[in-house]
Specification:
nine-stranded mixed sheet; alpha/beta; two-stranded antiparallel ribbon; transmembrane; Alkaline Phosphatase, subunit A; 2 domains; 46% helix; membrane; transmembrane helix; LTA synthase family protein
Length: 502
């Protein structure tokens, strides 16, 4: 029977590929149980491909290509973001053809992409012609076999998702430990197992576990306006070897508090920081949903910042000058409790710096929302101008990625200065923070221990005091902001001083 030799070759080749990719930094585990799990996952991948063709050598070769593809993508992803491929990444794949400029990829119409794809299709078609299928003889037996194999794989997945097998999987993988599990069990096994564990546990991590704010101080004055701005890829440019940014001096001179913000990822995964700030939930509370929190809750968080603000009588607005479907932001933000969404369609005619609406224009729109409010207002905004990748052709005459980044971050700083000046005379809070460090050649994983920069400005306060440096995690910042909209007494300084725009 040709299936067994093809399986042995596929197992051996896949093991060699992953051992080579791991190298000395992430050596694979040679324990019997770990190898058995690794081989079982590879066999399942081969059976998956076999179900489409009933050609064992084609299925075996497809399994080898799968192992090579997972290893290659994981290797590239580690170099930019610092972690291997994970199951939740596959949920983001539909975004790539819709928003190719946001990724280091090319459209399928590019010969460098379309050519290999056409060659692969032609190769599979030729292989179908050269290798005969090993289906049972007779149409009834063949039809039964064609149905039985995918149904068997589906039944196995169902059994692993619930019941005794699910319990054994939970004991094997009680919590995420991505790099260690990839080293132990391989990419395919880890991706499959994490997906099953996520499905089994996504309803278990209850948002109610988040600490609730303290009771408001009786008679404590409440902010008229709370503005929270998530700054795309923002860190102090001096940390990257760039020039001083006047806004950073404003942080140190005029903010109530400022400092480094520990965020959940490097170079990408905006939604992780966004979720942490909007909910106050730490990574440990998310279980296997930590890789993409929106997959688990979709924004349905009863203790979110927007819901807390709504309960306190605030209007709630989300302002983001990009597509409504990216990260499903429109749906997610509605679920979080934002009643008004101001997104790309409302920025028609706004100045663009490179591919995206400029940060200064976004700041002007935020201030317009503040001026047009009917009552207390919470604005949560996400900038877009400095979104990577920073590729040649993005800015006229500037092709160096770091130079492009510094050009954009100067506009981010001007926007912050504008917001500080525009909120003068109000009792207000302004919070600005970076979602993650930029994925630049000069800013690789390990930079700054995944810490960005943040600042909180408080206006119209009656308590003076010098700015305080307080380093925080993103979820701790979220809990502090929940206290702010709930009217909980928080340390404030005298109104921030307006400064001329640099």
């Amino acid at each position: 029977m040709s299936f067994l030799p093809a399986l042995i070759v596929a197992l051996a080749a896949s093991l060699a590929i992953e051992a080579y990719e791991g190298g000395r930094q992430r050596p694979i585990s040679w324990r019997t149980r770990d190898l058995a799990i690794r081989f079982a996952a590879c066999a399942l991948v081969m059976l998956f491909w076999f179900a489409f063709s009933w050609r064992p050598w084609l299925a075996g070769f497809s399994a080898i290509l799968t192992a090579a593809g997972l290893s290659l993508v994981s290797h590239l992803k580690r170099g930019v973001i610092g972690e291997p491929l994970v199951f939740s990444d596959f949920a983001l794949l539909p975004q790539v053809p819709r928003h190719p400029d946001l990724y280091y990829t090319r459209p399928v119409t590019d010969p460098r992409i379309g050519g290999p794809l056409l060659a692969a299709v032609a190769g599979v078609a030729l292989w179908y012609w050269l290798e005969p299928a090993i289906l049972p003889r007779g149409w009834l037996a063949a039809g039964a076999a064609v149905l039985a194999l995918p149904l068997g794989l589906l039944a196995l997945a169902t059994a692993l998702a619930r019941g005794p097998l699910s319990a054994r999987l939970a004991r094997l993988l009680p919590k995420p430990d991505l790099e260690a599990d990839v080293a132990r069990y391989g990419h395919a096994a880890t991706i499959l197992a994490y997906a099953l564990r996520w499905r089994a546990t996504r309803d278990a991590a209850a948002p109610a576990a988040v600490p609730m704010p303290a009771a408001p101080h009786p008679g404590a004055p409440r902010d008229e306006v709370v503005v929270v701005v998530q700054l795309e890829s923002f860190v102090d440019p001096e940390r990257l070897g760039g020039p001083a940014l006047p806004a950073m001096d404003l942080f140190r001179r005029s903010a109530a508090q400022y400092g480094r913000l520990r965020v959940p990822a490097h170079g990408a995964y905006t939604m992780r920081t966004e979720h942490a700030v909007l909910t106050g939930r730490d990574a440990a509370s998310l279980g296997f949903g930590v890789f993409d929190p929106y997959l688990s809750t979709g924004g349905h968080e009863p203790t979110s910042l927007a819901r807390r603000a709504d309960a306190a009588g605030y209007e709630t607005a989300f302002v983001h000058p990009f597509h409504r479907d990216f990260f499903h932001r429109a749906r997610v933000m509605r679920a979080f409790g934002f009643h008004r969404l101001v997104m790309e369609d409302e920025f028609a005619g706004a100045p663009r710096i490179g591919p995206y609406v400029g940060d200064v224009a976004l700041g002007s729109r935020i201030l317009a929302e503040v001026r047009g409010r009917q009552g207390p207002l919470l604005v949560f905004s996400v900038t877009m101008e400095n979104h990577g990748p920073w590729k040649p052709g993005r800015l006229p005459g500037i092709d160096d990625p770091l130079a492009q980044y510094l050009h954009h971050v100067a506009h981010t700083g001007r926007m912050v200065e504008d917001l500080v000046a525009g909120l003068q005379g109000l009792r207000a809070t302004l919070c600005v923070f970076g979602d993650h460090a930029p994925a630049l050649p000069s800013c690789r994983p390990g930079f700054g221990d995944t810490a960005t920069d943040y600042a909180i400005f408080r206006f119209g306060a009656d308590e003076a005091g010098p700015p305080a440096r307080v380093d925080l995690t993103a979820d701790a910042l979220g809990r502090l902001l929940r206290d702010t909209v709930s009217g909980v007494s928080t340390p404030r300084r005298a109104a921030s001083v307006a400064v001329p725009r640099s």
